[in-house]
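Narrative summary of target 7.
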Amino acid sequence: MTLGAHLSHVQSVVTRLGEVGDAGFRPYPTFASSADSLDPEEGLVMGHVVVKYKVTMDQPEEGRPDYDGIASRIGELQEVQTFEVKPLAFGMMFIEVQVVLEDGEGTVDEFEARVRETDPLVGQIETLEMGRL
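Modeled conformation, tokenized:
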């Protein structure tokens, strides 16, 4: 079914529901802001997701990673809302990063790749939480 045919069908159903009279509800065509939506004028409208990450570092042979410096570079990425260096275990730390990304195919992978590019010591990137806005 084409987009035009689908929209025509939806409009006819809404019209028929409106003709039912007072059946205890009113039909309102709505577009959920927290989900992928179909806007008849703009096409597919994508929502946004909030993702919280745990970023751990590979340990160098000598010394320890510059956690604050790496966190600052990650914090410069446009999507980053908050970041914080937190203790992990045995003197190691991790960086907790909260971001807002467009909900779409490949956006999470693209963001994670850019985080890896901030420093060669960036190791594992683990998703802690994810939810729609």
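The chain has two domains: 3-45, 48-132.
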